[in-house]
Amino acid sequence: MQLVFAGKAHPQDQAGKELIKNIISFMSAEHLRKKIAFIEDYDINVARYLVSGVDIWLNTPLRPLEACGTSGMKAACNGVLNFSVLDGWWDEAYDLKNGWAIGNREVYTDKDYQDEVESKAIYSILEKDIIPLFYERGSDGLPREWIRMMKHSLITIASRYNTSRMVKEYFSKFYKNASENHAKLSADGFAPLRELVKWQNRMLADFAGMRIENVLADTGRTYKSGEQFLVQADLFLGKVQPGDIRVDVYYGTIVGEDVLQNSAMGQLREVEKIADGRFRFSGAIPCARTGSFGFKLRITPFHPLASDPYENGLVLWS
């Protein structure tokens, strides 16, 4: 096995520069001369040779500080198998069969302990999984299972993590919407925009006066899969009108200390006035899974012309 290091630290990243210095100092030992190499001046040309010439792309960011991980994507497009911390793109792309993962998304408060645990995981996976698989050869000298993983990696990664998809998503999710939003807001001499600004100012002034007074739900019985779980919320809105807000119910399976998994979002759409300034919002949650069940209410401003309900930082949770 030969380790090839390449990369650059940001000019202000003292820890990164110190790490590179330590690697170069460590590899200067005589018995490591042919085992570890450091390639200076990492750039596109160096990357081209690396991603087409290595067997494993090892990436060890300190989770959750990985910016993205485009180098691993390029490597995968060249048939290279990724071996990385579950952060950035690899947290999305890893499927247990297209490479190897370091750790299991654990959260650490002690960085030194995190380094110790993850470094031991690297050595263990290399020794027990990666190297035996690489040297498991048939009579023709080919590592059949390794090649199978390479093909699976190409199928699952190259088709998804590429610039064509990126540009299409930028267009469909951002550019197109921004263009349409500009056309709507600039119509009639920007009258819709002026209306939106007035609404935003009103919400900034009045949103804090709202409160959740009561949440009604039958939590005393067991529900069967496929049933509906009814939720009602009595809200004091003050000067805010029911059409100015959206009442969502965030629900899922409870694991551990009130941690929600398999979470989803529903909406309390039915509105009934119960007194001046007080309204009851109602809706149903589908019971699609078994197990302990929990939910929270989330109230955000709503306006048909507003592209982002969170841009003013107004959210009320139950």
Structural commentary:
With 318 residues, this protein is of the alpha/beta class. It has 2 domains: 43-161, Rossmann fold (3-Layer(aba) Sandwich); 208-317, Sandwich (Immunoglobulin-like), CATH 2.60.40. Helix content is 37%, strand content 26%. The chain has helices spanning 14-26, 44-53, 70-77, 89-93, 111-134, 144-158, 163-185, 187-206, and strands at residues 3-6, 36-39, 56-59, 81-85, 99-102, 211-217, 228-236, 245-255, 259-267, 270-275, 278-286, 293-301, 316-317. It is elongated. The mean pLDDT is 90.
Mean pLDDT: 90
As residue ranges, the low-confidence spans are none
Share of β-strand residues? 25-35%
Instruction: Give the H and E element order.
Output: EHEHEHEHEHHHHEEEEEEEE
What's the CATH class of the largest domain, please? Alpha Beta
CATH superfamily of the largest domain: Glycogen Phosphorylase B
Shape: elongated
Radius of gyration: 27 Å
